[in-house]
Amino acid sequence: MLDAVLAAGEPTQAGIAAATGLAPATVSNIVRDLCREGRLTASTAVRGGRRVRAVRLTPLPGVVAGVDFGHRHVRVGIAGAAATGPVEDDGATRLLAERGADLAEGHDAAVGLDAAVALLDEALAAAGTARAELLAVGIGLPAPVDARTGAVGEPGILPGWVGIRPATVAAERFDAPVVVDNDALLGTLAEQAWGALRGIEDGLYLKLSDGVGAGLVLGGRPYRGRSGTAGELGHVVVDDSGGPPGGAVCRCGNRGCLETWASTATVVGLLEPLLGAPLTVDEVVARARGGHAPSRRVLADTGEHVGRALGGLCSILTPARIVVGGELAQAEELLLDPLRGALERWALPGAADGVEVTTARLGRHAHVLGAVALALDHVLATQL
Ligand SMILES: [Zn+2]
Fold this sequence. Notes:
alpha/beta; five-stranded mixed β-sheet; 12 helices; 12 strands; about 40% helix; globular; binds zinc ion
C-alpha cells in the first residue's frame, strides 16, 4: 500500500483500493493504522471540484543532498526529504540551497570530494540545517559507474576518478549513505520526477555538452544496463568516412563517434578559426540568433549528426519523447529542427512517427535535481 501511495503522490482511499485491489474497508483500516504510526499523513484535497480526503507519505524530518560533478565543476543542492509530491512540485522550488565551484580539468577524485564537502557544509548552513539532518547524498559523475562493483569506468571525462568507488569513499566524507550514478541518467531521473519526461513510459534524455550521453526510460523505469554504460550514444559511430578507418579519433579509442561531431568542443572548435578563441557556446548561440551564417551552419550540422544517431535508436526502442538537455540545448530550434529532419531520414519508416523532441525543462538545475532524486529514491526505499 505504501508503494501505491508513493506512485500516486497523494491518492484518495478509493484510489488506493483501485490500485491495490484491496477492499475499501481494508484500505480504510490500514490507512488508519499507518496514520496512527505516523507513516501516512491525511489531508483534505480538491479533486474535480470536490473536497476529498487524501493521504501521502509523511515526510521524514531531514534533508538530502544532490552533488553534480562535471569535469570542471561541482554543484551541491540541498532539498527536503519529502516524497515526490503532486504535480505542482516543479523540483526547483524543492531546492533549499545550492552552491557551486570550479574544478581544474583532470582533477583527482580526492580534490573533487574535498570541494564537495566544503560546498555541502556551506549549503547546509544556508538551508538552516546541519550534517546530522542529512539522510542521503546522491552523486552524479560524467562517467559510467559499474552497477556491480560501484567503480568508475571508462570512457570517462574524469580520468582522475577511474577505478575509484565513489559511494564508499564519499560516504565516509559526508557521514551519510551515498548513491552514485552517471550524470546523463541523473538528468533523466530529474526530468522524469519533475520535468519533460514526467509520465512518459518510454523516452530518453540526451545530454549534449562536453560529452554526449543518453539516459533511457523503458517501461516507466530508468534503464541502467549491465555495466553502467547504457545510453552512451556519444560513442555510436555515425561516420567512419568509408574505406580504411577514418573519422576523428575519439577519447574512447574509436573513430568517428557522435561525440567527435556533436560536443561543445567540436562546435566551438569549428568556429574559433573564424571568430577567435576562446569562444563559448553562449556566444555561438547568440551569434546564430543574430543571423551569423557559419554559427547557424555549425548548430544545424550538429543537430543533423545527433538526429542520425537518434534515428537508429528510435528504430530499436520507438520512444514516445526525446528530451534534449546539456549546454547545447540552449540553441533550441536552431539545433532541434535539423535534428528532427535527420531523425526522420535515418529512422526505420514509421519508427520516428509521433516522437516528440523537446528541450529539457529543468535547465541548469537538471543534474543537481537528478542527484537529489537519486538520494530521495534511496531514502524512500529505506522508508518503505
Ligand atoms: Zn567514442
